[in-house]
Amino acid sequence: MMNKKQIFITSAFTENSIWKQILGICSALAVTNLMENSLIMGLGVIFTITLSNFTISILRNFIPKNIRMIVQTLIIASYVIIVDIFLRAYMPEISTALGPYVGLIITNCIIMGRLEAFAGKNKPADAIVDGIGSGVGYTLVLLIISFVRELFGFGTIFGVTILGEWWTPWSIMVMPPSAFFMLAILIWIVTTPKKAKKGD
Amino acid sequence: MAKGKKYFSETKFYPILFMIALTIFFIGILATFHHLTAERINRYQEEKLKREILNLFSIEIVDVNTDFERYITEESKAGLDYYVAYRDSLLGYCFPIAGQGLWGSIEALLALTPDLEQIINIAILEQNETPGLGGRITEDWFLSQFSEKPIYEEGEIISYNLIPEGEPRRAQQVNQITGATSSSRAVVRILHENAKQILRTMGVDDE
Questions:
Q1: Chain B CB contacts of A70 below 8 Å
Q2: Residues A96, A18: contact at Cβ < 8 Å?
Q3: In chain B, where are the structural domains located?
Q4: Quick one: which of A3, A190, B18, B124 has the fewest CB in 10 Å?
Q5: Residue of B nearest to A84 (CA)
Q6: Complex ipTM
Q7: Is A82–B29 a contact, with Cβ atoms under 8 angstroms apart?
Q8: Does the pTM of the predicted model rise above 0.80?
Q9: Cα A132 to Cα A12: distance, rounded to the nearest angstrom
Q10: Residue in A64, A78, A82 closest to B15 by CB
Q11: DSSP state of B150
């Protein structure tokens, strides 16, 4: 049995959903041209994944096995709608910027992956830690990618100008292709030392 | 336990009842949350609409609600609701327009000059086009192409032709968005269809 700290480290880093499991790529590519959007998206996913994990864990002994995926989808969708309503009411600008991607948290495979792999078999408290860990791991990757993309693409960090007027923005960093490059480079950097150790 | 006797959780009704109970529970939570925030969301959307209308007529906004009351009046003619902008003199008219896009409906605002023959500007309020492709119909470069274009000339409503993005355009041409031909076409079509109805109702076009 792992303790809470181990659960967190495993789900956030060792078994990071993006660089290790290559899940949740769609949204990671889509929203990472601005750090603010990435952070909000990350918080949305942390919220959804933690509460979904918790709910599934509480219900794990009652959910009929043959309909468990429908149950998971219903629970995820409900929490995502709460995030969506919250953003529309309190952060309308960000809600507009994220547009359809908030709704697409429902289809983020990290969430269903954690519900299947962890929450359905573990206690509620552990499920919460795993949810936070997975969400933090995901958010971290988004922030790293968006840091580079926003800095070179707009010359700003969280909208604050860092590179002055002398800087010529790399417009490719704002456009979708750069997300692919950045994600690939990140996965390469993170996984290379491990492979070298294994002697691959 | 007697032979052949099943627990309730093993019967085929259990999954159905479980799902119904869970659905009702979550609908309850969502309904409550919606109820608590509905007023706030509506207020924001109303302000957004007012802001867009003021922007269409290039009126500088200090306070959205006061400025809207000062410069804009809402009118209606034969079932057509529209906004009239005055500042010293008549600035023009603004009509809500809507139609089918590629994935869902597109809602927009069309501002016309006082003689109703020229477009002042267009703003997109709601759209569900593909993000990054058709979603670019909200971008300034695309919409600003319509500004100052004639909509009614020599007794006819003008239908704009689409040409590839980046190519130099003439009076009745509009650069489409690369990779989003359907969405670009939809905007032009919505404009034409709505203009027809608007100009007929306003008594400009008699056909």
A1: 19
A2: no
A3: 74-201
A4: A3
A5: B34
A6: 0.81
A7: yes
A8: no
A9: 8
A10: A64
A11: B
